[in-house]
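ligand=magnesium ion
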Amino acid sequence: MVDDQVSIPILTDSDIVSARQQARELAKRFSFSSSELAGIAAAISELARNIVSYATQGTVNVSLIEEANKKGILVIVEDQGPGISDIPLAMQDGYSTSNSLGLGLPGVKRLMDSFEIQSEIGKGTTVIVKKWVLR
Ligand SMILES: Nc1ncnc2c1ncn2[C@@H]1O[C@H](COP(=O)(O)OP(=O)(O)OP(=O)(O)O)[C@@H](O)[C@H]1O
Ligand SMILES: [Mg+2]
């Protein structure tokens, strides 16, 4: 049986590429449209990029899920980095502590069907997102 979940340690730019590709391969097994597959890959890139930029290292976990007659993908991105002190602020378009665009987290929220973020200063950050197959 082929595994329906992958975990990719994130330390470098090439790990970001690898996480994107592995997630895309997994998501292809469900009937996501090509634009949905692109959106999932983009969301994973943004979250993995944040690990490299702000937390040094972390993990991207991707699973295929089935719930109450629907199918989808669950992505859990976690790190033990510095954490985010003000989550509502970090979720605003244009807010960045690194002079970047500040569109990563709000963009991920728009791309996915559900979005949760947990963060504790000095402990780390976990972002949990899901995308369901439309039918
Ligand atoms: N994993 C993380 N650990 C600690 N801080 C984070 C993490 N992810 C995001 N942040 C904080 O939240 C802010 C907003 O993140 P977001 O991804 O929206 O924007 P950005 O990374 O600054 O810019 P962009 O993603 O558009 O290049 C970041 O500038 C950073 O301060
Ligand atoms: Mg970002």
